[in-house]
Amino acid sequence: MKKIIIVLICIFSISAGCGTVQSILKSTFPYTATLIIPMNSKINQTISATSTASSFDQIFGNQDGTTYIKEVRVASARLDASNPTTQNLGVFKSVKLFIVNGSGAEVMVASRSDVSGNIGNNLVLDIDNSRFIDDYIKGNNLRIRMEYVLKNNLTSDVSVRAAINLSSSPNTK
Q1: Degrees (nearest 5) of the Cα angle 131, 70, 128?
Q2: Which of 12, 14, 29, 114 has its Cβ near the most Cβ atoms within 10 Å?
């Protein structure tokens, strides 16, 4: 009798643990894109850069991954210098990130207007999670658009990796 109870407890613990891990993995997922800032970008002028976004599901071939989620909100957003990796992102005066869907509709998901001059090679943005963005992330050809204003001239082209983490609830339909 004790063995049966121990086995049942073990089975329950393992299945609950797997469900928890699966829930965590499916409820938070990133979209990433690499954006290029040309060396000849003018300072104190609003400029835009756009790049195709990719997600975990797209990388592994699950094109219908967004049909299993609902109530999608932005959880966090971050920029990292990727080329050169030592680039100080304090060259930005302000930054805004937008998600753009295949039909061209876009929504601003994060911004930062008080970028410190010595911020380093990564920049955490202030998110706007006041609305659900389900309509923007479902479908193909998702892009990330960055609108930025430089406060300093660049000495070379700079690549930044934008990562927008989204949270969602499972769609049980």
Answers
A1: 25
A2: 29
Strands 28-37 and 54-55: antiparallel
Nearest CA among 173, 172, 166 for reference residue 57: 166
pLDDT given at position 1 = 65
The position carrying tokens 């934008």 is 162
**Both structure tokens of 49:** 């850069």
Q: Pseudo-torsion of CA 26, 104, 33, 64, nearest 10°?
A: 30
Closest CA to 109 of 144, 161, 153: 144
Given CATH 2.40.128, say whether it is the number of domain 28-170: no
pLDDT, tens only, 107-141: 999 999 989 989 999 999 999 888 888 888 876 78
Interatomic CA distance for residues 51 and 31, integer angstroms: 11
In the chain, where does DSSP find H-type helix? 2-27, 56-59, 134-137
Check if the beta carbon of residue 159 is closer than 8 Å to that of residue 82. Answer: yes
Q: How many other CB atoms are found less than 10 A from the CB of residue 49?
A: 19
Structure confidence by residue, pLDDT tens digits, 37-83: 999 999 999 999 999 988 744 433 344 555 667 788 899 999 999 99
